What does this fold into?
Amino acid sequence: MERLLQGLDASGAAAQHPRRLVVACVRDAVERARRRLADGRVPAEAVSLDALLADARALLEERSAPSLDRAVNATGIVIHTNLGRAPLCQDARRAVAAASGYAVLEIDRATGARGSRQAHVTELLRELTGAEAAFVVNNNAAAVLVALAALASGRDALVSRGELVEIGGSFRMPDVMAASGCRLVEVGTTNKTYLSDYEAALTPSTALLVKVHRSNFSMRGFVREVPPQDLAALGQRAGVPVLFDMGSGALEELGARVRCASGQADLAAAPTLQTAVASGVDIVTASGDKLLGGPQAGLLLGRAGAIAKIRAHPLARAVRIGKLGLAALEATLRVYRDPDRAWSEIPVLEMLSRSADTLERAAGSLLERLRAAVNGAASLDLYATVTEAGGGALPGVELASWAVSVRPHHGSVDAWERRLRHHRPPVFARIADGRLLLDLRTLAPEDEPVVAEALEGAARDHAGAASG
Ligand SMILES: *Cc1c(COP(=O)(O)O)cnc(C)c1O
It folds into this structure.
């Protein structure tokens, strides 16, 4: 241990790290070597002071690097849940930085009196969506939970059997309803639900009619669902509020600028937050980081009376939005005041609207750049492919895209994919058709040097393996 610590000190590797971490890494390097020897996995002569030092240095590097690091998304999936969903626009990034210290979060600067954090986004949301009132929370799951608890706890909520969805990450509609304290009453069948099914299920203990958007799957064939405006009309007749969980709420009509792969359904029909609000339902809930392209947040939009009940519920405090998310949300919403700016500056919208021609040209120029990096260790080709919006948005909609395909001459495609993931920052690509695909839809020009560096690393590793 002493000699290893001296060795690390002498090489300068230990100086910039806390002593405790250095000691722990040395101890773990020794322990690992001891275990490998005991198992007979390595011969005694393979355990040298130098090998132990290298191991300790690698551990030190690994443990002192940030865990929640940035990533390069070459998968082509725009709203990639595992890579943090929507990347923020530049204005939102600046707003997060500005709000990181003290900020005018809950104070009225005119009077110095206590204010509400909601005030930063309420007017913007009303202006952009046409809603009478708005409230934001930590995420959409929380928005649905607090709305159900505030509007239907201890009473019945009616939901179509075709809309009892699982969103993923354990958000299952029946479980969320149970957690909110309301009773789930299923109406209709899996494939067909009519307005008369809701009507027949109404009783004096019905507190809420619930509609859930099928965010991550689509149903075809012999199907029928009740549109939000019909449910809203029924709710009004019966004096029962209506909740519409939209999930992915877009503020722009995607059909105007997003081209689907040929033979695909028309995107113009995809609902926006404005159309959902205009349908007359009492509450619309949506995520901030899906098609809206902002930070993780849950939006509640709708009638003043229903919003007031939700705001006053104790759960509202438990699921409140943090100041960094709020700052990013406000900045993102401001960009939407100018639709042209939104389409060019909000990354989700900009990436979804890239045309196949633009992507093909970008793939061509990336391919040229990568040629030198792989240095003959793999074949590179232009590759036509399709991608999806991802993240529980636009299910079943395919977007034509272009990728650079990498077919390694040495080492497996899996090994190259792994090597890219281990690069700093990591590069995430997908494997299809026996190739590694670097999809241009989700790559920014500033990512390209990183992709080149990571591929160069993979080529170098495998060139070594091939000659050694
Ligand atoms: C995504 C989604 C949710 C969950 O939203 P989060 O912001 O991820 O909490 C809930 N309902 C629907 C319909 C969704 O699409």
User: Anything to note?
Assistant: The two ends are 33 Å apart (CA to CA). Residues 2-64 form one domain. Residues 196 and 298 are 31 Å apart (CA to CA).
